[in-house]
Amino acid sequence: MIRWRRGVVSSVGRSWDGAVELTVVVDSVEIRALAYPALVGSPVEGDTVLLNTTALSLGLGTGGYALVVALPDRLPPDPDVLDGPGHMVKGRYTPQQVTVLGVDEQDSPHHALLASDVSLDGMPVVVADLHSALPAIVAGVGPGRRVVYVMTDGGALPLWFSRTVASLREAGLLAGTVTVGQAFGGDLEAVTLHTGLLAARHVLAADVVVVTQGPGNLGTGTPWGFSGVAVGETVNAVSVLGGRAVGSLRISSGDARERHVGVSHHSLTAYGRVALAPAELVVPDPLPAALASRIEEQLAGLPDRHRVVRVPIEGLEEGLRALPVKLSSMGRGLDEDRVYFEAAAAAGRHAASLG
């Protein structure tokens, strides 16, 4: 299940909020590795590191790093338990379980607020399947709105893994982050998606919230075996809390897999069979001529409870190209799968119009 290796840090590379890249020599071969200093301390050249090399050995695209498990010869100091980070445990009963202060736990200054009868007050919440949609949605929202990212635990669990989030924060395009479920590393931590959404609204003062899983996506080629089913569950949560769910449809013209051409079966299943509450499903206008009839047919099969909203894409390309991050989804950029990113940006534009 786990490939363990011991290596020596030969160089320290680039870093971003919460993470640092390393080059590590293992059995006379240099490999790339990633460390989370908050968990293991800050590696320096010459440090011995204990590594989990599973993702690297499998050749995973998003997670193709060896991960630093520990610096066995130089352990970080113990946290001050008297002033510690709370009592919420994430990554529970794994070797690297972490203790954080949950925004909704009793020790939190926001506990009383979240224990009261608060709602989302009609706030728009953009829901997307893949993490790669996040920057495009943010570009579509544009300036003048406080955008908060709520990261679910379907992909990477540490938010620190996402260079996209770090770059959007640095550019001032995200006002804050909340990590929910087993995900951790956000500005706020929450037990559930529900309290995470409420915290985004009432603690971080969001005008628009974007909900996606972290980097990485798990799919099995079966009708139900993919992490994106959480999209439908998010729609239900938004409805229960009095928000307005805006669906960022996963649309592609460049995917070689038939089930993802046009509107992906992930979106069709999540909105068509998992979401029991209504959502506003955004379609970029105009659609690519080669896909238009296929997409119209796919949308016609969705339940009547959802409302299809057609959003003009004029002017969105400029915002997408001005982003401080490289747009990429399944290895395809803006020029290789334009409609994917336009669909996400159109959802952001629609959400901004509701605020």
Characterize this entry briefly.
The protein is of the alpha/beta class. It is built from 11 helices and 17 strands. It has helices at residues 37-40, 54-58, 111-115, 133-141, 163-170, 193-202, 230-240, 265-274, 292-300, 316-321, 338-354, and strands at 4-16, 19-26, 29-35, 48-52, 66-70, 88-90, 98-100, 124-127, 147-152, 176-180, 188-190, 208-213, 244-248, 251-252, 262-263, 280-285, 307-312.
Notes on the protein architecture:
By secondary structure, this protein is of the alpha/beta class. It has 11 helices and 17 strands. Strands 11-10-9-12-8-13-16-17 form an 8-stranded parallel β-sheet, sandwiched between helices. A 5-stranded mixed barrel has the order 1-2-3-5-4. It has a two-stranded antiparallel sheet with strand order 6-7. The longest helix is centred in the last third of the chain and has 17 residues, at 338-354. It starts with a strand and ends with a helix.
